[in-house]
Amino acid sequence: MNGKTTSSEQAAAALAAGQHGLITLTQAVALGLSARQVEARSRSGRWTRVGRGVYRLAGVPVTWQQRMLAACLGGPHGAATSYLSAAALANLDTAVPPSTDLTVDRDQSVRTPGVIVHRGVLAAADRTTFQGVPATSVPRTLVDCAGVVGPRRLQRLVDSALHRRILEIGQARVFRKELDLAPGRRRVGALRTALDEWIGPIAPGSPPEARLRRQVAGWGFPVPQRQVPIVDEWGQVVARSDLGWPERRLGIEYDSAEFHGPSQWAADEVRHQKIERLGWRLLRADRLDLRPGEGVLRSALEAAWRSEVGAPTHR
């Protein structure tokens, strides 16, 4: 191997290191390797062909991000991961799909095993990069996903995007207004509803809290308020309930593992007793209450709703 080839090989390795271990034939030739040299590396096993004109360097582990990038690199110019593939790359609350969703321009054609091709127009604002892979932006991804998933799963994607601040509240408000200009898009109504959960005056504290609020409303109760202030006899706010109905002095606290672990149990109990001395009834919920068919919280809420809430004791 001469000095020029060695230099080109090193440059190829450096480039591949930033591309999940991948390099294209076009890139390799631009770095000084010939098509014949690339083919020789493929035959020897030093490079493995993983797509049309796309190779993985030997020793590089196989990952799902690499699979998606290979689809982009082997596709037409401007191809980007989209739909649930883009949602997975953005770390939204979804599983990695077994096939890669790829959006290409309407006049382009591509057939690659394991790739689901979507055709459409991607404006500059619709494009971004997640984990080193070209992808559709979060707003565009949510619009696309609204056409292929049900309302419940779509809400989870929106919950995750807003809670993790992958999509900021301000961006979501602008995005929500833009949806009003596209009434014909499939299931755009479900996406509006999912966004409305987060862009009101008070945002949910977490996706589970948002799901709990929707679940309670689904049981037939009035939609509870968020972050309900609880005041003492002097009118001072002493606590806030995650969800509740102030006119009934009834609240629900969602105990997440993040903020209500064992180290907080003693403090939570003191706070709970203080709230109940003010005449409030405070129910507790956790992730188990969000499971389908779980009825403990619903039964407790129904019992509390039927009973009269006592007057404050102020002890």
Architecture blueprint of SSEs:
Elements: H1 3-17, E1 22-24, H2 25-30, H3 35-44, E2 47-51, E3 54-57, H4 64-74, E4 80-81, H5 83-89, E5 100-104, E6 115-119, E7 127-130, E8 133-136, H6 138-146, H7 151-163, H8 169-179, H9 188-196, H10 207-218, E9 225-231, E10 237-245, E11 250-254, H11 265-277, E12 281-285, H12 296-306
Parallel strand pairs: 5-6, 11-12
Antiparallel strand pairs: 1-3, 2-3, 4-5, 7-8, 9-10, 10-11
Helix pairs in contact: 5-6, 6-7, 7-9, 8-9
What class do helices, strands and sheet pairing give?
Answer: alpha+beta
Radius of gyration: 27 Å
Major β-sheet, in short?
A: 4 strands, mixed
Number of domain modules: 3
Strand content: 15-25%
- The averaged pLDDT comes out at 87
Number of strands: 12
Number of helices: 12
Please write the string of helix (H) and strand (E) elements.
Answer: HEHHEEHEHEEEEHHHHHEEEHEH
Approximately how much helix is present in the residues?
40-55%
Low-confidence stretches: 257-263, 309-315
Terminal residue distance: 87 Å
Dominant shape: elongated
How do the strands of the widest beta sheet line up side by side?
9-10-11-12
Report on the structure:
This protein is of the alpha+beta class and 315 residues long. It folds into 3 domains: 57 residues, Orthogonal Bundle (Arc Repressor Mutant, subunit A); 132 residues, no CATH class; 100 residues, VSR Endonuclease (Endonuclease, Chain A). It contains 12 helices and 12 strands. The strands form 4 sheets. A 4-stranded mixed β-sheet has the order 9-10-11-12, sandwiched between helices. A 3-stranded antiparallel β-sheet has the order 1-3-2. Helix 5 packs across helix 6, helix 6 runs antiparallel to helix 7 and helix 7 packs across helix 9. It is elongated and about 85 Å long. The N and C termini lie far apart (87 Å). The C terminus is likely disordered.
